[in-house]
Amino acid sequence: MIFLIGDVQGCCDALDRLLAEIGFSPSRDHLWFLGDLVNRGPQSLATMRRVKALGGAADSLLGNHDLHLLAVADGAQALKRSDTLAGILDAPDREGLLDWLRSQRLAAVEAGWLLVHAGVAPQWDRTATLALAAEVEAVLRGSDRAAFLRKMYGDAPTRWSEGLAGVDRLRFIVNALTRMRFCDARGHLEFAAKDGAGTAPKGYMPWFEVPGRMTAGTPIAFGHWSTLGLIDTPELLSLDTGCVWGGALSAVRVDGGHRELHQVRCPQARKPGR
User: Number of structural domains, the chain?
Assistant: First the structure.
């Protein structure tokens, strides 16, 4: 059985309860985490160890918080007051954990679903999304990763062009796959608004509602957007259901035409704005 799991964000106890809820068997099942395994929750180290120990029974996408951990670990960014990553950075098995994280992907396909952490730029189809994700993955696994991570942060450019090159190209790919929520009809990304779909700034809409997007008709599963809530339609799965904020941790079985939703409630580990 194949399960997609929303943002864990360092809530390992909730993850253990969810795995018990689905009757997870590492010899039978495969888990795909949709990114943001760590940060904000109280058990980031335990979460990374738990998922890494599953070996071939689990894969995780890289979310914005996972990339932030890699940037801090390489000295490309400072820890923020709200980060809960110190346990990983001080752990004796730190390097093994970080190497494992760097080996994870930014986009994948499983059981017919295109998997991303946040969204897909409207100009990209499935093939382009996977190819562009691979460009960043190669950099993160290479010797020059720290140089990129130092320049990864930022909102520009806000619109995709095939002519983008260098850091601008890589930054846009990262922002689309790990940060985007709202987008306008011409494909400009907007990063300030973080509430639900009904709060889109004037002229913007949720990225999956952009008319003519190239992934229309492609089933897409994503996390990242906890204020959006659960979306479970034939072509869209939104699975960040706000575990760290006191919501739920969600998993959906997707193999063989199955669509089984499983959830466990989560104690509030973080208050909005803190």
Answer: 1
